[in-house]
Amino acid sequence: MAHWFLAIEGVIGVGKTTLARMLAPALGASPILEQFEENPFLPHFYRDRARYAFPTQIFFLLSRYRQHQELAARLEREPVVSDYMFAKDRLFAHLNLEGDELVLYEQLHKALAEKTPQPTLVLYLRADTDTLMARIALRDRPYERGMDRAYIERLRLAYEAFFATYEGSCLIIDATRNFVQDEGAFQEILRQVRGALGLGPAQQPLPVFNRPTLSPSTPTEEALAQAFARLVQEIGSLREALFGEHRDPQQVAQILQSCQQQLAAIARAAGIADRSPRARNGP
């Protein structure tokens, strides 16, 4: 796997897809979102789980496998943020299947799971059942109306048990905080993710400097403004070199040297380059 792969997991309604859409551009990654609405059995499943559990689960298994093959190909080109991990399929299967259906599912899942990429990092979004039910009601998907609270509670407990023994790299996020409306909550998640992926601190917006109001008719003042503008550009390049995916020490050193040169140019233009006693008193 050439690039990192971040998967976001949690119970129905916890905010996986929303967070994936927010994190992908912030991390410079490509989003891959679960295509659950393609499953023709899903609306029937929520009305009669016992009858439609097996076709619903098999459709999801094959659909998720196909999408993870596409995901593996994309990882050769760029990092990926997904709103689910392939392992979730088995978690749902053990809640909804039993007997021969579960045995058949397990055989198929085992054959497919070996060929799917594993996440570099998983975010487990944790929320209580009241929060989950409120968010499910708020998004108001037709087939989720009348969602069984007991089923969501069972699913929540299944996720808790799964991540209690999960052996991969995982961050547990308190998703009761509304990271959509609370910018501080989102920035905290972003900081944790960047740290766990080894990406370094998030790049802050470059400082905005107001160009001094100088008369272009004065050559010295114009030179000062130009040197100052070049310095701001070099600072931007330095940030990219320090916090980019591949840090090149030689490139960083060159940019630092250029920054020093621009500072010296500013000092000369401002007339403060040589104010030592020797400069004032002459040779």
How do you describe this structure in short?
By secondary structure, the protein is of the alpha/beta class. The protein has helices at 16-27, 42-47, 49-75, 88-96, 99-113, 129-139, 149-164, 183-197, 219-243, 249-270, 277-281, and strands at 5-9, 30-32, 80-82, 121-126, 170-174. The protein contains eleven helices and five strands, in the order βαβααβααβααβαααα.
Query: What would CATH call the class of the largest domain?
Result: Alpha Beta
Structural class: alpha/beta
Major beta-sheet overview: 5 strands, parallel
Tally of individual helices: 11
Strand order of the largest sheet: 2-3-1-4-5
Based on the model shown, name its key terms:
283 residues, alpha/beta, Rossmann fold, 2 domains, 5-stranded parallel beta sheet, 11 helices
Structural features, described:
- By secondary structure, the protein is of the alpha/beta class.
- The chain folds into 2 domains: 5-197, P-loop containing nucleotide triphosphate hydrolases (Rossmann fold); 219-281.
- It contains 11 helices and 5 strands.
- Helix 3 runs antiparallel to helix 4, helix 3 runs parallel beside helix 5 (99-113) and helix 9 packs antiparallel against helix 10 (249-270).
- The protein starts with a strand and ends with a helix.
- Mean pLDDT is 83; it is low at 205-217 and 272-283.
